[in-house]
Amino acid sequence: TNLPLWRRKVELYLANIPTDLQGPYILSLLSDNVQEVLWATDLPTTARAGAIWNKLDELYPVLDDRAESRTTFWNRRQLLGETVKSYANQLRVLVARAFPDPPKDTKDLLVFERFLEGVGDLSTRRRFIQEPPADLSCAIRLA
């Protein structure tokens, strides 16, 4: 389970509900197993959102897998049958995991460079070497 992603989805879902009223909603969205684990830690069923998030973070820590994500990113190539748009989107996901701190422009540049090197069609890759596209959207259009 990807707790940070799930938390982000829940926070978007509950955005219009005051924070002090979100606790029961969060608990109702958890799987039965996770609810049982929380209650085994004596977290009250009336706990507020902050207490629930803190306990979830404590029970399900997110491992820092940047090194593995970077290896995956740098080795990622377009898969057989994968569209260029899907390939670019997967690179965006991987770069966000592998390099969470740099600004968006830096991440976009990394995705662009990896896309040019990893696109599946050999003739397209050669064309990109001879005449590099201006940006990722242009590269996707040309691929």
UniProtKB/TrEMBL annotation:
This is Uncharacterized protein.
